[in-house]
From TrEMBL:
Species of provenance: marine sediment metagenome
UniProt name for this protein: DUF1549 domain-containing protein
UniProt xrefs under InterPro entries: DUF1549 (IPR011444)
Pfam families in alphabetical order: PSCyt2
Domain DUF1549: from-to ranges: 16-205
């Protein structure tokens, strides 16, 4: 979970994104491309922030504005439209968190919706690390994401709620695909069956037996965090305390995987 070290600033461009881009361009021997036109800038900024095109009147006024900091001013104006921002980004986060899933096998009531909490979090611009901590170690309003989906009838071991928990927190917050490792040691990555089940055991209410390709192995999982260099989970703690520990480890300042995944 390495933390990215920012390269030195070039030509007074000290913003972290500029420093990363300038360093990458220098390595490739390329020059910084010219800035986009005012009309292109406004179109992109408006679409990204609230999903809507700027009105013709807003576009004309922006292009005619001669202020040297008009782009910075426009960004602040767009971000101040908290309702439009939340309306637009709610769809993205509903998808990422599987909050809107109603597909085959979904049982009505088998998945607690967190839309009111999520909408409020987006509208108030809740810091990302706080948002993630509240999803992993939830309140009554934010619980739902970690509980996964209650499928209809019997399902294979890799679709239990405990394993869904391991798959979802690793995919959404770390960019790690644990689905392969949920059945057997991954063929496409470094992750093992034991690591997937140990992560799932943090959420489990009772001892969790490893299943390889849906066959019980007789081995029991132990609640463990996948990056022990950042800390670990107390296996004797209650489920509530284990989730609090995981939330802290996930958002640890040295967990570069967490920040890189968001970017």
């Amino acid at each position: 979970p390495r933390v990215v070290t920012l390269p030195p600033a070039e030509n007074g461009r000290n913003h972290p994104i500029d420093r990363l881009l300038d360093s990458d361009l220098a390595k490739r021997g390329e020059s910084l491309p010219p800035s986009v036109s005012d009309s292109v800038f406004l179109r992109r900024a408006t679409l990204d922030s609230n999903g809507l095109l700027p009105t013709p009147a807003a576009l004309e006024a922006f292009v005619a504005n001669q202020a040297s900091d008009k782009r910075e001013q426009m960004i602040e104006q767009l971000l101040a439209k908290d309702v439009a921002y939340a309306d637009h980004w709610l769809t993205t986060w509903n998808d990422l968190l599987r909050n809107d899933y109603t597909g085959t096998g979904f049982i009505t009531g088998g998945r607690k919706q967190i839309t009111p909490w999520l909408y409020a979090a987006l509208r108030e611009n809740k810091p990302y690390d706080d948002l993630v901590r509240e999803l992993i170690s939830p309140s009554a309003d934010s619980t739902g994401f970690i509980d996964g989906i209650q499928w209809r009838g019997d399902v294979n071991a890799s679709q239990s709620r405990e394993i869904q928990f391991a798959q979802n927190v690793s995919q959404v917050f770390l960019g790690i695909n644990m689905k392969c490792a949920s059945c057997h040691d991954s063929f496409v990555d470094r992750w093992t069956l034991s690591e997937a089940y140990n992560l799932a055991a943090i959420y489990a209410e009772k001892p969790l037996e490893l299943n390889r390709c849906d066959k019980p192995t007789g081995k029991m999982a132990e609640p463990k965090w996948i990056f022990p260099e950042l800390g670990d989970i107390d296996p004797d703690a209650s489920k509530t305390q284990r989730l609090k520990q995981l939330a802290k480890l996930m958002t640890h300042p040295e967990n570069g995987r967490f920040t890189r995944t968001l970017v």
